[in-house]
Amino acid sequence: MLPSKSNNLCLKQLFPIACWLKSYTRQEFNSDLFAGIITAILLVPQGIAYSILAGLPPQLGLYASILPPVLYAVLGTSRTLSVGPASIAAIMIAGALTAPEVSMLGNPVQSALILSAESGFIMLVMALLRMGGLVSFISHPVLTGFTSGASLLIIGNQLPLLFGLKTPSCGIDVACYGSLLQSVNIATLSIGLSALALLLLFGKPLIFTLKNIGMKPALITAISKCGPLLTIALTTLAVSYLNWPEQRHVAVVGQVPSGLPALNFIFASTEKWRTLLPYSGFIALIAYVESVAIAKVTANFRGEKIAPNQELIALGVANLAAALSGGMPVAGGFSRTMVNFSAGARSQVAMLIAAAILALAVIFFSPWFENIPKAALAAIILIAITPLVKLKNIVSTWRYDFGDGMAETATLLGVLIYGIEEGITLGIILTLICHLRKTSHPHIAVVGRIPGTEHYRNIKRHQVETWPHLLLLRIDESITFANIDYIEEFISTEAERHSEVKHIVLIFTSISDIDSTALEVLENLIQTLQASNITLHISEAKGPVLDKLERSDFLKHLKPGKIFFHTESAVKELSIYIDTPVDKATQSPLQRERVG
Questions:
Q1: What 3-state class would DSSP assign to 434?
Q2: Regarding beta strands 535-539 and 563-564, do their DSSP bridges make them parallel or antiparallel, or are they unpaired?
Q3: Are 382 and 148 in contact (CB under 8 A)?
Q4: Domain 444-589, what architecture?
Q5: Residue 115: how many CA atoms within 13 Å on its side-chain side?
């Protein structure tokens, strides 16, 4: 029996690779091969650096860059997202592993594998519950504040490694910092500064020079992205030749096991799961939100689509694979993804090639990683992280929206003062509070007619016609239990302020719903207005809103008020009560001048 079309459709939805692999061309493979080699060059130093940033042995970052991206390539909907160790996830892992209740459990490697497994399971449960839209609950300002705060934490974490110092615990003791600076390891500092200089040279200066000599963009990308690997190679050769790990106490990576990891379940039979669950939840949430955000950036460049719920499945399976293969939790990495995209990657074949190259490096060249100086890795992290600190963005957000600016600032400060989880939680709570504040105080405009037209606009913004016995109000929000008291008070206040009003028309152009609580209050308001000889009318209500009103007794309560299709129709029909149009601000005959 042939498979049905519905089965084929489900199969393609679960395995997006089946959709694009059929039309895959040799030209696309050539582009992916080049991009895969370039991305692999970045995977080695980043995998080791982010693993050390998380407080883990270097091989956990390398292992997380092999099997997880392979499974994401099969299940993910982004053509260019590079899944593996990520800077923000690394600092969250470090925060989890250094928490008192977690450090008491011992064996940080096992705890890291549990974090990977739990994060994967959480994402799969979210996918099962169709929670792919959860990404919209973390606003862009909160995500920016979180990223900036976490990046500042990473910078503070890496600077001591760059200088060859122990992590300071001086608090606000200035003298302590002075004595700490005197203990700088000159050899380590020279390695770190040399690495920084070389990485900066491979940035804008080299790109600018290569562009001026007319080199092709793809080749420029290839050369410029070799900076981290070349930095690692040169600094490693230097410290090895000078024997600085022994003579000058320069901190190095240390032994990295050779060969691919054996699949294991050492994370399965343990009592640590409950303790690590809250941390895994935050890691899963941030990894998902960050990955989808990055995937959308590159997808938009090429007119491609991202399926958020399928991304949960792909990232969940990738994190389970990380746990099985001895790797740290994974997410989409911004710098790797942009390198992959800029190098011309057309599909996830590029990441399959990058993972294969890294696997060969782990098998055959692991001994070469032993003398990599941690100062050089710190320099790589600093160069990658610094652009993520967007303090100027906070100022522009404040100017545009006070609530978003407050949430962004609070998230950044919360991350710096209280920690990763507390900061992001504070930002989300403030965002919801600001949203509820806006919803509970909707914009309501007293409107009038622009002379010579059938357009009705805010009397504070436009020159309009108004009438003494008619009040036109436009409510720019759905009417719910959260804002009905504010709306009722506004209508009552305007009715009292305009003592000659006999008719009030509520313009429903922006209203898409009225809940039962709001409906009851509106019915009571109609009776209150009728007691004052004021009739309430409705105009321009949408079909779904009218359907709900017709299923209730509201239309009976509304009488003698009416529902009008157009506001202009309401004005014409009620014109028997209306005198000469006047300017609402001055109550004088209409003046030809702008109000407000």
A1: helix
A2: parallel
A3: no
A4: 2-Layer Sandwich (3.30)
A5: 33
